[in-house]
Protein: FUSC family protein
Organism: Campylobacter jejuni
Amino acid sequence: MSKRKILKQQCKEIIQLNPTERVWQMPFFFALAVGFALSIAAYYDRMDLGLIAIIGIMAFVYTTNTPMYHRMAVTMCCSFGLCLSFLIGLCTHFFPAFSPLVVG
């Protein structure tokens, strides 16, 4: 297969829209939340804090179309996992001796 055909096929796959079972409000409110957090961070000239806020917003992405009690539990677990991974990264930043234990 020529490089041109491969490139054309890859571009088609990137642009292709797949059907989804999610309601349209989910990506809209996700984009709104990310945009709001970054706008406030840009206003105060603290993009580092805005990027950390986006990590918290990412837990919202993992919710599925299930009953409310299940969505709340999944969001709670994802938020806990994100906080825990942030804490582990923070600990390895302040105590580099812990890095080999965390990584391997």
About this structure: The helical segments are 3-15, 25-43, 47-57, 68-94, 99-103. DSSP finds five helices and no strands in the chain. The mean pLDDT is 86. Residues 23-99 form one domain.
